[in-house]
Specification:
With 349 residues, the protein is an alpha+beta fold. The protein is 40% helix and 21% strand. The chain folds into two domains: 205 residues, Jelly Rolls, CATH 2.60.120.10; 119 residues, Orthogonal Bundle (Arc Repressor Mutant, subunit A), CATH 1.10.10. This is AraC-like DNA-binding protein.
Length: 349
């Protein structure tokens, strides 16, 4: 992996995030025109400008990893830069200042997003104008509207509409945008563990992308936020049993809740209500418990001669953050997964 960026001269409360994506450099330049051209390759097009006296201070850097449906990156300019972004129906963007501030124009009003306090939602529709402070370093999340439309179909049950939800430009307190903030951080931290997006397991890319899409749909305001006039009802027991059979038949992590609902032909909300009625837990809780048990089974059955690792078993069952997997495993089985693996290998020796 490339050397970590020296951020010692830039105040930041998020050093780990600032350093996590350095393998995905898109540009590092003192020329704002080069940065403007570079941004067009992975974000919506826009114009960058700087006060004449600040041109010599430009030190623009961008790091960006793209899963297809979702992308995450971090950007800075080193000078106070004006951003004029044209409407782009392809993308929804979220900008999270990690240091400094971003001032956003909304009509005649200027709203300031501050590091550690707020985030900026950049809608697909409508001209967007903002100004980054010279010390601003930001985490960027970009989602395609086509992927949001697909994910929204799973949440609303309107599978065939194909219409993406419509968001609005806004500055939100972090506590209101917490789900999206957390999804962006997770995406950056996990992808940052790999040298190249091409070597990231497809199952991991899929899970991270679906998580980010769901976070945006459930955590940000849009025109599909309120359910349509129908009342959501719990899925019938037969649909819950079908979903359970799909989960129980997995050879590894395959489904997320959205996909599970689509396979049995009901909405996510109906599936959640059905699981609560039948099992007194959510589909996610059932999947997580079942996959923990299977990871435990696989660790017990591991053979020292085949080189099985805890990370391999955890990843197979959809636990891509090994620290959290270890904590959940110990809470459930009373020992760390490495202890189970060591014991099983001793038994095979």
């Amino acid at each position: 992996m490339s050397a970590l960026l020296d951020v010692s001269g830039r105040p930041s409360t998020e050093d780990a995030i600032l350093q996590s994506l350095t393998a995905y450099k898109r540009y590092e330049t003192y020329d704002l025109a080069v940065a403007e051209a570079g941004i067009r390759q992975f974000m919506a097009p826009g114009r960058l400008s700087v006060r004449r006296g600040d041109r010599d201070n430009v030190d623009a850097r961008a790091y960006y990893a793209d899963t297809g449906a979702v992308g995450v990156g971090r950007m800075s300019y080193g000078a106070e830069v004006r951003v004029d972004r044209q409407a782009d129906s392809r993308y929804l963007g979220v900008t999270i200042p990690l240091s400094g501030t971003i001032r956003v124009w909304r009509g005649g009003e200027v709203v300031e997003a501050k590091a550690g306090e707020s985030l900026v939602v950049i809608a697909a529709d409508g001209h967007f104008r903002a100004e980054w402070s010279a010390d601003c370093d930001a985490l960027m999340l970009r989602m395609t509207t086509s992927s949001l439309a697909r994910a929204a179909g799973a949440l609303t049950g309107e599978w065939e509409s194909g219409r993406p939800p419509r968001f609005v430009h806004q500055v939100l307190p972090l506590e209101e945008g917490y789900a999206v903030h957390a999804a962006a951080r997770l995406l950056a931290q996990i992808l940052g563990q790999y040298e190249d997006i091409a070597v990231v397991p497809n199952a991991l890319l899929h899970q991270l992308s679906e998580h980010a899409l769901s976070a945006a749909l459930l955590g940000l305001e849009h025109d599909l936020s309120a359910p349509t006039q129908r009342t959501f009802r719990a899925a019938p027991s037969s649909a819950v049993r079908s979903a359970i059979r799909l989960i129980d038949g997995e050879d590894g992590e395959v489904f997320n809740v959205n996909e599970l609902a689509r396979h049995v032909g009901i909405t996510v909300r109906a599936l959640e209500l059905g699981f609560r009625r039948v099992l007194d837990e959510t589909p996610y809780q059932y999947m997580r418990r079942t996959r923990l048990e299977r990871a435990h089974r696989d660790l017990l059955a591991a053979d020292a001669t085949n080189g099985t690792t805890v990370t391999e078993v955890a990843t197979r069952w959809g636990f891509f953050h090994t620290g959290r997997f270890a904590a959940s495993y110990k809470a459930t089985f009373g020992v760390m997964p490495s202890v189970t693996l060591s014991a099983s290998q001793t038994g095979h020796g």
